[in-house]
Amino acid sequence: MKSDGTNSNARTGETILDMRNVCIEGYGEDGWKTIVEPISFQLKRGEVLGLIGESGAGKSTLGLSAMGFSRGGCRISEGEIFFDGMDLRKASETQLRDLRGARIAYVAQSAAASFNPAYRLLDQFVEAPVLHGVSNARDASQSAVRLYGEMNLPEPETIGFRYPHQVSGGQLQRAMIAMAMSCKPDLIIFDEPTTALDVTTQIQVLIAIRKAIEAANAAAIYVTHDLAVVAQMADRIMVLRHGRLVEEGEARSLLAAPKQEYTRQLLNVRTERKEPAQVDREKDMVLRVRGISARYGKGVRVLENVSVDVARGETVAVVGESGSGKSTLARVITGLLPPYEGEVAFQGEELAGSFAERSKQDLRQLQMIYQMPDVALNPRQRISEILGRPLRFYLGMNQASCRERIDELLREVELPESYAERFPYELSGGEKQRICIARALAAEPRLIICDEVTSALDQLVSEDILKLLNRLQKTLGLSYLFITHDLATVKAVADRIVVMLQGCVVEQGEKDEMLRPPHHEYTELLLSSVPEMDPDWLDRVTADRAASGRLG
Amino acid sequence: MVGQRLLFGAITLLAVSIIIASSVELLPGDVATAILGQAATPETVAALRKQLGLDLPFYQRYGEWLWNFLQGDMGISLTNERPVAPQVGERFANTLLLAALAAAVAVPLSLALGILAAIYRGGWFDKLISSSTLIAISTPEFLVGYIVIAIFAVELGWFPPLATLRHDISFLERIYVMLLPCITLALVVMAHMMRLTRAAIINLLASPYIEMARLKGVGTARLIVYHALPNALSPIITVIVLNLAYLIVGVVVVEVVFVYPGLGQLLVDSVSARNLPVVQASCLIFAGTYVSLNLLADIFSALANPRLRHPR
């Protein structure tokens, strides 16, 4: 059965997907183990189902199973998956291939990784329609141009002739949505389609997805970990945890009155607020960055005349989209990238441009915590070695005092002392990040640069990490330079906010002042792009921006 | 980048020539004793040495050779007193012909088998290919040569056991005579190329864009040939070119086994005769081939990358 292109006339409300007691197993050390417990749901044309949960909840696995597909090491072990009356578990490989891409389409998390780097966008768009006999290459190219236009892509006539690496992440994600629409599918599975994007780009992609679903009168499964995003997209929401259904309901009522404690926790995430630090910004300045300009090699400037101050005991948040130069600023401050203009002063004294020329004391007092705790810890070292190294290197401690201090550090980051003998792979993501914090604390620093420290973590876990950082700051009098693209994080930790755009500081000031209007135009754009739990938020923002002519 | 690499290549060749000259110097005996053989008396040896210029100190002889070489003069063979260049040239042409023939068989075949093994990954075909290539890799090439002779020349009698070339034979006869050494060489290099083709493709099968293609309904064969292969080209090209280099440089043993009049055979003869100018010229040709093919491999694998072909 092929799509005849008339499904926009098909009856809305007709059940297209019927999953009955679907159970999925994964292969691990001790054989096959259930990773998604029996679950049932139905999906009608025009309806969007949101699957939400933290990493490991089984939401992507469940989403893929609606295509009769399971990733390597997984299998659908029980149940029935009826798509338009056909049981996908009993279908042959050929029957499944005929459905995939034609009647059921998939939109992946990272478009940059999911487009084949060897082919132009248009070649990849045309592939499915031609393969499934829906249309010939020429007609498919024409519909590509039309869909690229509908997705608000620049130069829809020619963008298809570009290779994936020649297009930005947000545009690529929209090109992938257009590609999913190429055969006018009846069911589309969106697997975290905006997770890798900046908020300002995310909003455009969300609008594009809505348009796509409406235009095709298709059913959709929207997989995400972000409740605020799913609130905009879904008619119905299923909350998953550890492969089990926690709660299910119509989107508005579930958001308004969650029945389960876990759903409430997800809803209440991002409520941490820092008590404002009492600092003397005249006298007690820890870090003073003045007029920094920097570039990589002989390339274009990535930082242009950047000045930032951090006082003792305060948190300065640097926010901006990817490519705004925030991480480069951290590299300049730590001496990894010497600037060619401007100076960095630490506690009143100018620092050498390169870390190689700085004293051990300077290095010790300025520590860093990274985005990916997985790769920031040496997988072959025990926690005791990881924490012991700065103690011996910076503070010259002997074996006995090292042991004592490691125990103390572990207690400080709320981990049991027994963890000292473990290897990083025996820890969860949040625990690893705690070890990274403990490693920074081991050097007894004045200033810690936190580079996107919570963006690789689940929301509940990152909330705990932010709480821990706030508590440590209060007890130890630390200063933080907090680099992030997430404004919710900023609200939770910052005293001051620095907004960066294309290597320049756009605006900076006290948090409360910055969050209160009037804003700089770009700050306004950033702030208004952060999704809210209110299901009407996207409509409101779209309307506002359409009114002021600032969309696209 | 290319200019820099060419400079490094030239330096490599210079280093190779010094190493070869001094290694030959370190070997017991010299060309004079080798020529005179049984007739060597201290007086005759000394006279011959003087005549050949061997009584001069090592650095002086090397410097003179280098000076002449840079002007395009490869010198005179010490044993038959004819110019080195035409002798070496003729032999090198023979070696190139053998290598080209072996490559023409081995490269397409190993690519195709590697791709098939990737498509039928885990099946009996894949397992058969994997185990047979393992055997081919672990068998020394001279043994492969003798086994090939035993089967095709001795048992079946299809081909002559020796690949000696007479001057009056036609091109087709020539190819026929060369088939056995060609098969031997192909067997030796195919295993590498095929295993790497298979591995490079399979390595990519876990990438998100392959999963995406699968979810678009693309079948296995197209998945591998159209979606995975172009992205696996860079390592495959590298291993192909390195194996081409091996076909030219590594043939020494195979040429000796089949008594094929290639450059490798000449090199072996010249070393036992301590005929330094010929040894130098042959080794420099081998080294030059290696250096330039390596450079070629890097250029081609860079060209296989769409990011470099189509900059932003």
Query: Biggest interface between protein chains, with counts per chain?
Result: A-B, 30 and 21 residues
The tally of strands of chain B reads: 0
Cα gyration radius of chain B (Å):
24 Å
H-E string of chain B: HHHHHHHHHHHHHH
CATH architecture of the largest domain in chain A: 3-Layer(aba) Sandwich
Number of strands of chain A: 20
Q: What fraction, in percent, of the residue positions of chain A are helical?
A: 25-40%
Q: Distance between the terminal alpha carbons of chain B, to the nearest Å?
A: 20 Å
Characterize the largest beta sheet of chain B: strand count, sense, and whether it forms a barrel: none
> Beta-strand percentage of chain B?
under 5%
| Structural class by secondary-structure content of chain A | alpha/beta
Binned strand content of chain A = 15-25%
- So what's the overall shape of chain A? globular
> Which class do the helix and strand fractions of chain B yield?
mainly alpha
Oligomer: heterodimer
The residue ranges of chain B in which pLDDT falls below 50 over 5 or more consecutive positions are none
Sum up the structure in keywords.
heterodimer; A: 552 residues; alpha/beta; Rossmann fold; 2 domains; 21 helices; 20 strands; globular; B: 312 residues; mainly alpha; 78% helix
Topology:
The complex is a heterodimer of chains A (552) and B (312).
Chain A lengths: L14 E14 L2 E14 L3 E5 L6 H7 L8 E10 L2 E2 L5 H7 L4 E4 L3 H4 L6 H11 L5 H14 L18 H12 L6 E5 L7 H18 L2 E6 L2 H7 L2 E6 L2 E7 H6 L4 H8 L16 E11 L5 E11 L3 E5 L6 H8 L7 E6 L2 E2 L9 H6 E4 L3 H4 L6 H13 L3 H14 L16 H14 L4 E5 L7 H18 L2 E6 L2 H7 L2 E6 L2 E7 H5 L5 H8 L8 H12 L4
Parallel strand pairs in A: 3-8, 3-9, 6-7, 7-8, 13-18, 13-19, 16-17, 17-18
Antiparallel strand pairs in A: 1-2, 1-4, 4-5, 9-10, 11-12, 11-14, 14-15, 19-20
Helix pairs in contact in A: 4-5, 4-6, 5-6, 6-7, 14-15, 14-16, 15-16, 16-17
Chain B lengths: L1 H25 L4 H6 L5 H11 L5 H13 L13 H36 L4 H15 L2 H15 L15 H34 L3 H8 L4 H30 L2 H7 L4 H10 L3 H28 L2 H4 L3
Helix pairs in contact in B: 1-13, 5-6, 5-8, 5-10, 5-13, 6-8, 7-8, 7-11, 8-10, 9-10, 10-13, 11-12, 12-13
